[in-house]
Amino acid sequence: MKEDPSYRGHLLVAAPELLDPNFRQTVVLIIEHGEQGTLGLVLTRPSDTTVKDLWDQIGIDDQPCTSDRPLFVGGPVEGPLMALHTHESHADSTVLPGVFFSVQKENLTELVSKPDDSYRLFIGHSGWGAGQLEAEMKEGSWLIVPATAELVFYEGDDLWDKVRADIASDSLIGRLGIKHAPSNPRLN
Hints:
The protein is an alpha+beta fold. It has a single domain (about 10-160), classed as VC0467-like (3-Layer(aba) Sandwich), CATH 3.40.1740. The chain contains 5 helices and 11 strands; from the N terminus they run E-E-E-E-H-E-E-E-E-H-E-E-H-E-H-H.
């Protein structure tokens, strides 16, 4: 019997028609996907709260934090503070090569002392019950592509547009059977 594919380490890209305010124009990194359901983090929802502001509210005095980076809203489901980062030694699990996930307090405490560009902290997450995500994909609410560390830690505010454009370009080139396409056809 064929196993269902795991989408761990993939990006869910909201279709333009997806109007749910929690997911409109979002890109979600899938952290876990299996028979029990799916856990993901929205990569495109920075909050107005900085990591330092949160750390000051939590009151963990033994590990100072000076990061002015935004705290991200990982989705509409409440839950513990979570991190995506590049430090394997502080990982609870590996999401994809070079991207690690942590929720344990010890790991989060260590991460906030690292350079700002090596981690992102999230409040909330995205969750789907068993079969729910697959049903939403069948109805066309989501596109799915493999993630890369560069996309997970992308600094621009146009990640949704960028990934959609990459998908459209790859799809068109594949349909036309073009074997060698320049990255910018205008320069051809």
